[in-house]
Amino acid sequence: MKRGLIVSCQALENEPLHSSFIMGRMAVAAQIGGAVGIRANGVEDILEIKKVVDLPIIGIIKKDYENMVSYITPTEKELEALIATNIDVIALDATINADLNLLKSLKVKYPNQKFMADISTTEEGVRAEKLGFDYIGTTLVGYTEQSKDLNNFDVLKELISKCKTPIIAEGNFDTPEKSKLAMELGSYAVVVGGAITRPQLITKKFADEVNKVKF
């Protein structure tokens, strides 16, 4: 993957743009806008995006299991489904909530596959480097019990200073200014999702401000 902006093109089943075709068009728009990579969820979306853009893709499968906290590529079933798509990079939960045996087995079973660790604390990122991950992302900072009081920029800076593995800024880097700062601090790349690809959320930001005016 090249350094720069990666756009996360995802729409879950309860969202208005949930469609592999639409995610493909979103990826095309991202490429035209200057993205150097795409992050995508699910086999159908990934295969559609691969057909329409020539950018590297970070693939995940979001799946909820009973009695499991992890939901980003949480088991080997999702992992093998992604492997079958010939994906460039597979991202998965590498927090303390994840299956450690699964994390330890990745490079043994799939030595030629690139993996990205989605983490929520500095300690988890350092552990991910020791486990052999190719990229470490701040994806889950603030979204786990152990990171609910942490600042994404603080974790980012600590990881950059402590790890040799490329660090990808992801999670609430939702303005051009924040994304630029993440790169200036030494991030390998920055992932932006909803701020670009979820028009219902973008619209709400505008509507909330407009509706503060009495008219």
From TrEMBL:
GO BP, sorted A to Z: carbohydrate metabolic process; N-acetylmannosamine catabolic process; N-acetylneuraminate catabolic process
EC number: 5.1.3.9
Molecular function in Gene Ontology: N-acylglucosamine-6-phosphate 2-epimerase activity
Enzyme's top EC category: isomerase
Metabolic or biological pathway, per its Swiss-Prot or TrEMBL entry: Amino-sugar metabolism; N-acetylneuraminate degradation; D-fructose 6-phosphate from N-acetylneuraminate: step 3/5
InterPro entries (alphabetical): Aldolase_TIM, NanE, RibuloseP-bd_barrel
Catalysed reactions, as listed in the record: an N-acyl-D-glucosamine 6-phosphate = an N-acyl-D-mannosamine 6-phosphate
Gene3D superfamilies linked to this entry: Aldolase class I
Alphabetized UniProt keyword annotations: Carbohydrate metabolism, Isomerase
GO cellular component: cytosol
Family: Belongs to the NanE family.
Function noted in UniProt: Converts N-acetylmannosamine-6-phosphate (ManNAc-6-P) to N-acetylglucosamine-6-phosphate (GlcNAc-6-P).
NCBIfam families, sorted: PRK01130.1 (NF002231)
Name of the featured protein: Putative N-acetylmannosamine-6-phosphate 2-epimerase
Organism per entry: Cetobacterium somerae ATCC BAA-474
